[in-house]
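A quick aside before the break. I want you to see a complete sequence-to-structure record at least once, exactly as it would be stored in a machine-readable document. Don't worry about memorizing anything.
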Amino acid sequence: MISDDAHLAELVSGLSASTRIALDTEADSLHCYFEKLCLIQISTEDGHWLVDPLAKLNLQPLFDLVCSRRLVFHGADYDLRLLRRTGHFEPVDLFDTMIAARLCGRAGLGLAALVEEFFGIKLSKASQKANWAIRPLPPQMVEYALNDTRHLLEIAATLEGDLRHLGRWKWFEESRDRMIASTRETKERDDNKVWKISGSSALSPHSQAILRILWFWRDSEARGWDRPPFHVMGNDEMLRVADQVSKGGSYSAPRMNGRRRKSFEVVLALALQIPENEWPKQEKIRRKRTPKEHMIRFDAMKKIRDRVAGELGLDPSIIAPRGALEATAENPASPALMNWQRELLGLPSPLESHA
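That is the input. The structure line, written in tokens, reads:
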């Protein structure tokens, strides 16, 4: 475990001789409201290391070095978002084994499935939901963390060979670049919609008004406690309480400490005083009628997609997800499909479609 700047400097110096570096991260999103980077796993052909970001290290020299090499991740989108929040992290060459496995038509896409397929080793999943902010890390968690990168370089080498042999390297590059671009997009929270959890649409407007105020109360409590919102109150509990209270009946209150229970009861009392004109409006779902020409275009593309997928031995959603087909049927110039996907479907590029 690298937990001081002196040893980190030694690691960076040693890594400078490596052309390929496997990387993974662990965070504490299941245990804290304010998610933080808790661990960085690194593997090269020469060894395996764990770096402790919680030790207040200056990680930028490490980031600068690894980003100048071929980086290998498995499912890089989450890791890239997390690392970018910690420092400047922009790889010049990235290989994602999950994207590669998908494009090669592998049956199992998870890291454990690939490790078992390639090496016959079954990885333990016991630490999947562990709290990575605890220190010192127990041996079981250390082993789990090291296994996340231990085999990645060998898997990546095999998958790259398969991609090139199958003539799908360009597919990989475009898919990877799109994934990286998506990790740079930030979504602003919409307070008018964020409280609309699964199941809320079935509630009455009065119940939704209560649910809305409960959601923001829970969020405030979670922030102050620095725990995930479900530690304060689960979604199912909020839906149940909102429904019961709106009907004027008694409700089964969730387990809470004294201060939080008082706060909860005050919020419920305030929720009951919300005037009807401030209740959420029932949204009328207006189904947009799909023009016949769009349906014909969609059906034609879907038939080609399914045929091509069968010929290539790939899941049809890899060739073109349904949503992307629908967007392209509505607007042939839509960028929903990547260039390699359009080529397989016999479609012109978006620019040619627009012209």
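Two observations worth writing down. The first strand starts at residue 20 and ends at 27. The mean pLDDT is 94. We'll return to this after the break.
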